[in-house]
Amino acid sequence: MLHLATTSAQPLATPVPDTSLAERLWLSVVSLGLVGLSVAAVAPTLLRDTAFWLGLLLLSAGTLGWSWLKFGRGPAGVRHNYLWQRGSTSRGVVAWLTAVALTGFYIVLYWWPQYLENLIRPLDGLSQTLRRKPADQWFLYGTFYTLAVLLMGARAYLKYRHSPYHRVRTLSVVFFQLGFAWLLPGLLLALQKPEFYFSYFWPLKYDYLFPGTVEYLVRDGQALGVFMVFWGAAMALVATPVLTYFFGKRWYCSWVCGCGGLAETAGDAYRHLSDKRRGAWRYEVSIVYTVLGFVVVTTALLWLNTYLGGTLLGRLSDEFSRTYGFVIGSVFSGVVGVGFYPILGNRVWCRYGCPMAAYLGLLQKHFSRFRITTNGGQCVSCGNCSNVCEMGIDVKQYAQRGEPIIRAACVGCGMCATACPRGVLNLENGPRQGRYQASQLIQAESLRILS
Q1: How far apart are CA 22 and CA 27, in angstroms?
Q2: Are 387 and 407 contained in the same domain?
Q3: Same domain, 419 and 284
Q4: For the purposes of burial, counting CB atoms within 10 Å of the CB of 114, is it exposed (0-12), middle (13-18) or buried (19 or more)?
Q5: Does residue 275 sit within a domain?
Q6: Using CA atoms in the order 301, 307, 312, 318, what is the torsion angle rounded to 10 degrees?
Q7: Residue 429 gets which letter from DSSP?
Q8: How far out from the chain centre does Cα 446 lie?
Q9: Domain assignment of residue 1, yes or no
Q10: What is the distance between the alpha carbons of residues 206 and 328, in angstroms, rounded to a whole number?
């Protein structure tokens, strides 16, 4: 026991290096920006706007400056250095404080937005210019969300600039978040049309195929509204299966989706925290497909209720959608999905709660041409691939056996292939025949040896 205690007290063989003076200066600018936003949240009207915009400017400049210093000047690529020794990335005090702050913001945003008035009102001018209406809590949230993707997208671009795949992927999620999830819905409101997100589809945007939403879009949007309904239905029921057949779920989860965009940019530092244990996988399967089933059943019941003139569910039809919106749309995707980044990893929502990820996953596993091929003969079992997998897949186990990785959870981010020092892993869109060929050959060889 004494020996164990003595051993555990020994210092690290390679201690965590001290933060450089330049890095501290940039992080201080970030901190001043957060202080400015905090002051704006409680300041009187005369000081509010100045503190808000100054805080936002300092936060943006500090983040970009720190990103350039940290990732733009040195070699590009995946870096595992000291991730499990730093408090910010190893569920330490800094990580828990960050999680509490993010969770607290989401709780206030969803249920007590009146306490955010001082942060909402400075955006009135921008909202009037873009949407022709005053700012509200959702415009504040959308602006902060988009800014996070832009700033941390610059960080991701600098960090993985050596990889054409990651450069294009990062630019793609930034483009769809800025253009399709922030600018375009605002312009639709300015034109007095229904707010509509062309980059979100059923079942993720679950109400887009609800009877009430369809009626609202057709009534208020007229010809454009009819196109919105067609777009939503066609993307969910036709384009999604076709695109997933050719490219796997990565075409959406890693290239288009705003949830995935935030995870791949702002959440990149936490990807190694995803639970790789088999028990976590069991929870994942049981929860995410339950959520998908709930959306499918709710949508079907609402349409049946509408067809029967409301005699099937009556007022319960509204309760179905409200229940889902509160439990899944607010608590899970917002409070837990983003607030728990520093504790559970950056794809908590995508892994355990997103119905679109479940839908895409079923298509990917059973019908898609996409897979990650491996060359077990070159694997050195370093574990880099498993460490960077944000979806909790123990990639190393597949690589050691030379088996292709065909998992419903895989979002095709490609980070495992990027982190591999031997080029063992490759993302491919090959013919469906032979997807399991490597594993089948191994099983056949094992049976031959045993017999």
Answers
A1: 9
A2: yes
A3: no
A4: exposed
A5: yes
A6: 60
A7: E
A8: 40
A9: no
A10: 10
Q: Give the three-state DSSP class for 371.
A: strand
Residue 51 lies in a domain: no
Q: Work out the burial of residue 384: count CB atoms within 10 Å of its CB; fewer than 13 is exposed, 13-18 middle, 19 or more buried.
A: buried
**Cα distances (angstroms) measured from residue 416 to each of 30, 78, 360:** 31, 10, 20
Which structural domain range is residue 194 located in?
A: 140-368
Same domain, 309 and 275: yes
pLDDT tens digits for range 386-420? 999 999 999 999 999 888 989 999 999 999 999 99
Alpha-carbon distance of 110 to 335, in angstroms, equals 9
Within-domain flag for 216: yes
The CATH code of the domain that includes 391 is 3.30.70.20
Same domain, 170 and 203: yes
Q: What is the pLDDT of residues 99-150, one digit of tens each?
A: 999 999 999 999 999 999 999 999 999 999 999 999 999 999 999 999 999 9
Count of structural domains, the chain = 2
The one-letter amino acid at 330: S
User: Considering the entire predicted model, what is its pTM?
Assistant: 0.88
Q: Specify whether the backbone of 340 is left (phi greater than 0), alpha (psi in -120 to 50) or beta.
A: alpha
Both 374 and 411 in one domain: the answer is yes
Task: Give yes or no for a contact between 158 and 72, defined as CB atoms under 8 angstroms apart.
Answer: yes
Domain identity same for 354 and 439: no
The encoded tokens of residue 162 equal: 């050596």
Quick one: average pLDDT of 302-329? 71
List CB contacts of 187: < 8 A, sequence separation 6 or more: 130, 131
Say whether both 149 and 209 belong to one domain. Answer: yes
Element (H, E) at 400: helix 395-401
Rounded to 5°, the CA angle 201-202-206 comes to 120
